[in-house]
Structure formats: C-alpha cells, structure tokens
Write a structure and sequence with these properties.
alpha/beta; five-stranded mixed sheet
C-alpha cells in the first residue's frame, strides 16, 4: 500500500468518526421536533462547534445546523474566517448554508447524503466550488450515506404517519 492509499484510509476513518458525531447532533434535532440534520466543525483535529437544526425550536428559518455551527466556530477561533476548518454535515447543504460556508472560508465540506430537493453542492447547484466566487471548498460526499439517509427517511415516514392519523 502506498502513502496515498494509507492517507486516504486515515482520512476516510476520520471522516466517519466525525460524521458519527454529526449524526448524534441530528438525533437531538429530531428529539426537539426538527428535521434531523446535524453537523460538527473540526479545527486542528478538535471539534470546535457542534449543532443541529433548530428551526422549529427557535422559530427561525435560518437556524439550520450549519449556520448555528458557523457562529460557534467563529467564536471559538475568534474570527469569521474559518481557514483550516472542516465541516461535517449529515445532509447536503442548501443554498443559504452553502453560501455561508463559502463566506466563512472553510477549507473542506464533508456531507452524508445528497438532497435532491434543495442541495446546493451537487444536486441542484454547486455553490461551494463555483469558480465565479472568491473561495471554494474541497468536498467529500457520501460519508455514512446510508445512515444519514435512513435517519431522514424514518423521520419523514413518522411525520407522514402522524399526519395521516390526525386527519382520520
């Protein structure tokens, strides 16, 4: 095995480790009645921010996991410029969050599953790597994709069932 292969193995293991932390955050969102999306931001091998969707809890349309985590990370490093940081999020970021990631100057985005309805990294747009913008992020997708997808599908299936029961 050459050095590149062993580095990829270490990166994949590390990415899975941090994605599991993001999934833990998504469960907190779900417990609070929000769509289960979670994220963590890592700087120099240490988690400096962890957050989950809080739109329902705060009645704030901008309280996405990524936005809440960006605020925490900026406070932790003492700057809005988050060079050297990697964000791990369970679902492909929406246009608002993708734009915020570019503005915050993160180095890397790692996400679990694609979002075919609002995804702004691969599904509908590619904001985070748009050459017309002044900053681009390295992107890794599909980390624990099945776990992230299953969590979201189970949540929405329960929601549909609850609505069906209410409407009877």
């Amino acid at each position: 095995m050459d050095t590149d292969d062993s580095q990829r193995d270490v990166t994949a293991t590390t990415d899975e480790q941090y994605m599991r932390k993001a999934i833990d955050q998504a469960y907190i969102a779900e417990e609070n009645g929000d769509v289960p999306i979670g994220c963590v931001i890592v700087y120099r091998g240490r988690i400096i921010a962890k957050a989950y969707n809080q739109r329902e809890q705060l009645q704030d349309p901008t309280a996405h996991a990524e936005i809440v985590a960006l605020t925490q990370a900026a406070e932790a490093v003492g700057s809005w410029r988050l060079h050297g940081c990697t964000i791990y999020v369970t679902l492909e970021p929406c246009p608002m969050c993708a734009g915020a990631l570019v503005l915050a100057r993160l180095d890397r985005l790692v996400y679990g599953c694609d979002d075919p309805k609002t995804g702004a990294v691969r599904s509908l747009y590619n904001i985070v790597q748009d050459e017309r913008l002044n900053h681009r992020l390295e992107v890794t997708s599909g980390i624990l994709d099945e776990d992230c997808t299953a969590q979201l599908q189970a949540f929405f299936q329960r929601r549909r069932e609850e609505k069906r029961i209410q409407n009877q």
